[in-house]
Amino acid sequence: MKRGFYCALLFAAVAFLVASCSTTKYVPDGAYLLDDVQIRTDNKQVKPSSLSMYVRQNPNAKWFSLIKTQLYVYNWSGPDSTKWINRLFRKMGDEPVIYNSEETRRSEEEIRKAVQNMGYMGATVVSEREVRKKKMKLIYRVTTGQPYLVNKLVYDIPDEKIREYVASDSTRTLLKEGMVFDVNKLDAERQRITNMLLRNGYYKFNKDYISYTADTVKNTYQVDLTLHIALFKQHYEGTDTLIPHRQYYIDKVSFITDYNVLESSALSSIEINDSLHYNGFPIYYKDNLYLRPKVLTNNLRMVPGSLYDEQDVQRTYSSFGRLQALKYTNIRFFEVQQPDTAKLNAYVMLTKSKHNSVSFELEGTNSAGDLGAAASVSYQNRNLFKGSEAFMIKLRGAYEAVSGLQSGYSYNDYTELGAEATINFPRFMFPFLSTDFKRKIRATTEFGLQYNYQIRPEFTRIVASGNWSYKWGLQRQRAQHRIDLVDINYLYMPTISEEFKNKYLDNQENYILKYNYEDRLILRTGYSFTYNSAGQALANNTIIGNSYSVRFNFESAGNLLYAISKLGGMKKNDNGEYVLLNIPYAQYIKGDLDFAKNIVIDSRNSIAFHIGGGIAIPYGNARLVPFEKRYFSGGANSVRGWSVRDLGPGSFPGDGNFLNQSGDIKLDASIEYRTRLFWKFRGAVFVDAGNIWTLRDYEDQPGGKFELNKFYKQIAVAYGLGLRLDLDFFVLRFDGGMKAINPVYESGRERYPIIHPDFGRDFAFHFAVGYPF
Hints:
Elements: H1 2-20, E1 33-41, H2 69-75, H3 84-92, H4 101-117, E2 124-132, E3 135-143, E4 149-156, H5 160-168, H6 183-198, E5 210-216, E6 222-229, E7 232-236, E8 239-243, E9 249-256, E10 274-278, E11 281-285, H7 293-298, H8 310-321, E12 326-335, E13 343-352, E14 356-367, E15 370-381, E16 390-401, E17 413-425, H9 435-440, E18 444-455, E19 459-472, E20 479-496, H10 498-506, H11 511-515, E21 520-532, E22 538-539, E23 542-543, E24 547-557, H12 559-568, E25 579-580, E26 583-584, E27 588-600, E28 605-618, E29 665-676, E30 681-693, E31 716-726, E32 731-741, H13 759-762, E33 763-769
Parallel strand pairs: 1-3, 4-6, 9-11, 9-13
Antiparallel strand pairs: 2-3, 5-6, 7-8, 10-11, 12-13, 14-15, 15-16, 16-17, 17-18, 18-19, 19-20, 20-21, 21-24, 22-23, 24-27, 25-26, 27-28, 28-29, 29-30, 30-31, 31-32, 32-33
Helix pairs in contact: 2-3
């Protein structure tokens, strides 16, 4: 097996070497293949990476920044383009990039302008060409020269009111004397001032009213900079008059609830059959008003009589965007046609969504080789009480044939029946709070009930749960929060087969196994936070620029019940646990933290890494964390050299019981080099590390306890290759991982399979949906 593994590597290397010999196959005589492009600067402040976007002609793309695989594939095609195999190779590959002198000249000009905009007005760019046979290496050498600095900064603002606003906001300015004369910063300051004025009533203001005058001081690198804000140009009776900019007030806000985006946006063309007034707000509708008037006014952030504020407009868009009863929202402003007034009438035009829907799902299941099928049907109403309340009810059934069971069981299949219902209110709901306070908190409230009935040969299990939670932070925002105010889970074991009980629960005295096959109540509260710096900078599952994300979760269970038990002097059961209605309850705290970062190398290559960890601590009324809350390691989103739930805890090798391969502490770290291959395929090379540990020394998990002087020796390491099919809406992921360091062994050949690989022993294949982090 080991010899075959090395032979495969050798074959791959030879294949690429052979392919590299034909990279210029379709390069015409007298032309050159653009083999490499580099940018070199003589100034550390001007990084080549910031200038690469201005290069007009780049060489053929490389897989993992190393191999021009798609060029090789193109060159595998023959000259006869009528043959299907040649057309296929050319479609899958990339034709050679032939050096173009005109594109080089344009690139020089674009780079030079970019550097000059950074303040280096005397910058020069010269291209150098290195030719070897039919290949060309192109180098752009950038000489920046000395930067120009702002010597004096002057403001020319004839509009007195605007001058006061700019002066009061001067602490936020991006401009200061002594700064580098950076055109990009000058433009950013124009936009900053414009945004500030749009928040203070200047409805018609735009950044074209702001300009600069720059005078260089003779024989120096100093610039005297003047910022101008022009007066408003009013056109009246064929003449233009310069007047101060007007501050606009919101006069009246109206709602139109049946706006059709496919028709004319003119108010006269909108079909309206009826109207009503609610708290001074006119509401127009066609046949019936499908939203309560209070819902409309509560989501409005513009206040009649106040100054126009662009932020209030965006907040209104955001608030109505949370309502699932609506498909689109459009806000239009019309100037009040009265002399000597500066007022706006606003119309919030709403487009209704489809309120009722039914969906069916069919799926195949595979649990450790046992095949099965599942089906579900769900009904959703997005406007249950005319307040955009989203109600969903789902029924699910599954069947699976169970193999590998020994004799003694009456049947050999697994059946699951489940039901869940949730209702989401697009507002913060809590008793004894004022309406104004709840309106300011832009949270949604969710109530849910779930019921799951499982029938297995070994036992019958019922899991019932209910939750009350709050969420805020929309998909367009970077930060999202969730508070689980109350989450109740009840695990009930109505029957356990005598065969299973005698063999696993009674005779072996496995505490972990017994604990997880007893009736249990979990009453928990929790908080989770997610932050993604990319925000909406996502396109087809690919991050456009560098970004990072942080995920944090904390939950606590059993504390309230334990306090009641203590204060009430309740008696404990035979296992030393307090019970509620004769049901023992879990008590623990759990926290998780994960950090991930994506670094873009170029348009086709990036590096992504993440590190995360978590700890769950049982205490008080429990010696063990419930299995559903424990950690496991190995699998498609963990250390990929091991199968799911197949690693740890610590140096524990496993005994075939997946319950024993769980822990209270988890540490994970991964790094991936990601590249675009061809069409919608992406590739990755990855290295993973991590493991799980227990807080206590359990007899059935020898070597699993976390110890400061040992845990770092028990960190497993894996490496591998991945293939991803990016279908825009979701990603299908295929990863193959190999063990590199196996913590089960303290030393020897088995501990370092990276040196002595055995494909049959060390390889694990994973199929998943979505990226691992």
